[in-house]
C-alpha cells in the first residue's frame, strides 16, 4: 500500500532530508586521497547524532537471516554499486570514485540521499559516468509529477543512461519513504512510459539511479551487503528524496551544494 503524506508530514521529511543532505555535503568535502572510509562514516554519524537525528542504516536488517548493516554511511568505491561497508583499512586513492549513501530520521520521519564523489583527479570516462548518472536523476525528478505514471520516472533514467552507452542496475530500486525507510512503491531505474501506478500528490519517493559503465549485472560479496558490478566496471549512484505536490516535484534532501 502506498501511504500518502500530508503537507505537515512532508515538512517533517524535509527536515530529516535537509540534515541528510547537509551531512553528505560535509562528508563529501572530506573526500581526499588517503582518507579511510571509516573516517567518513564517523563524520557522518557524528553530524547526524549531534543534531538529534536517528541513524537510518546502522543496525538495519533486510531480513531475520541476514546481518544488520554495521555503519551509518554506505561507502561504495569504484566497481562497488551500493551498500559498501566502511573500514579502517580501506583508504581512498587518487582516481577513485566513491558513492556516499546516507539516511536519517527525526521525529519518526526519514530522509535518504546519495552522491558519488571523485577522489582527486579522475579519468574523463569516470567524469562522464558521474555526469550522466547525476543528470539521469534530474530527468527522473522532472517526471515526478502528479498524473504521470511511476515508470515514466523509470524510463527517464533508462533512456538517458543507455543513450550515453551505460547501463542501469536492475537488482536494486528506489522506493517510497516516510515513517519507514523503505515503503511502497518500488521504483526501478528501467521501464516503459505510461505504465505503473499513477503518481499522486502526497507520495514521497527516494529516486536513486545506479549506473554501471559496463553490464548491469551484479554480484554480492560474502558480507551479504556489498554489491559490485559483475564485470568489474565502474558504478555511480545518486539519490534524492522527492515529494510529489500539486505544484510539482519538491526535492526534500536538496542543499545549496547538492
Set down the secondary structure blueprint:
Blueprint: H1 7-30, H2 37-49, E1 54-55, E2 73-77, E3 80-82, E4 97-106, E5 109-118, H3 124-142, H4 150-163, E6 167-168, E7 174-176, E8 183-187, E9 204-207, E10 210-212, E11 218-220, E12 227-229, E13 235-237, E14 240-245, E15 248-251
Antiparallel strand pairs: 1-4, 2-4, 3-12, 4-5, 6-10, 7-8, 7-9, 9-14, 10-13, 11-12, 14-15
Amount of beta strand: 25-35%
Number of strands: 15
Rounded radius of gyration (Å): 17 Å
Structural class: alpha+beta
Number of domains in the coordinates?
A: 1
Report mean pLDDT, rounded to a whole number: 97
Main sheet summary: 5 strands, antiparallel
Report on this model:
With 258 residues, the protein is an alpha+beta fold. Helix content is 27%, strand content 26%. The protein has one domain (7-251): Creatine Amidinohydrolase (Alpha-Beta Complex). The protein is built from four helices and 15 strands. The chain is globular, with a radius of gyration of 17 Å. The mean pLDDT is 97.
Amino acid at each position: 500500500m502506498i501511504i500518502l503524506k500530508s503537507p505537515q508530514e512532508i515538512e517533517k521529511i524535509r527536515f530529516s532530508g535537509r540534515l541528510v543532505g547537509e551531512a553528505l555535503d560535509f562528508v563529501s568535502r572530506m573526500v581526499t586521497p588517503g582518507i579511510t572510509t571509516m573516517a567518513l562514516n564517523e563524520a557522518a554519524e557524528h553530524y547526524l547524532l549531534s543534531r538529534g537525528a536517528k541513524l537510518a542504516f546502522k543496525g538495519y536488517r533486510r531480513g531475520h537471516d541476514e546481518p544488520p548493516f554495521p555503519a551509518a554511511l554506505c561507502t561504495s568505491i569504484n566497481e562497488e554499486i551500493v551498500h559498501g561497508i566502511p573500514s579502517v583499512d580501506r583508504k581512498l586513492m587518487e582516481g577513485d570514485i566513491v558513492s556516499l549513501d546516507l539516511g536519517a530520521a527525526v521525529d519518526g520521519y526519514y530522509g535518504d540521499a546519495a552522491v558519488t564523489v571523485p577522489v582527486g583527479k579522475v579519468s574523463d570516462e569516470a567524469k562522464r559516468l558521474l555526469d550522466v548518472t547525476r543528470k539521469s536523476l534530474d530527468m527522473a525528478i522532472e517526471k515526478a509529477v502528479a498524473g504521470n505514471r511511476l515508470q515514466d520516472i523509470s524510463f527517464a533514467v533508462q533512456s538517458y543512461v543507455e543513450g550515453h552507452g551505460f547501463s542501469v542496475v536492475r537488482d536494486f530500486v528506489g522506493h517510497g519513504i516516510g515513517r519507514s525507510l523503505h515503503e511502497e512503491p518500488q521504483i526501478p531505474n528501467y521501464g516503459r512510459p505510461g505504465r505503473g501506478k499513477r503518481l499522486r500528490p502526497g507520495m514521497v519517493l527516494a529516486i536513486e539511479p545506479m549506473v554501471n559503465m559496463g553490464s548491469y549485472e551484479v554480484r554480492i560479496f560474502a558480507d551479504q551487503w556489498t554489491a559490485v558490478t559483475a564485470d568489474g566496471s565502474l558504478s555511480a549512484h545518486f539519490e534524492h528524496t522527492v515529494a510529489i505536490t500539486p505544484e510539482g516535484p519538491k526535492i526534500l534532501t536538496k542543499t545549496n551544494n547538492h
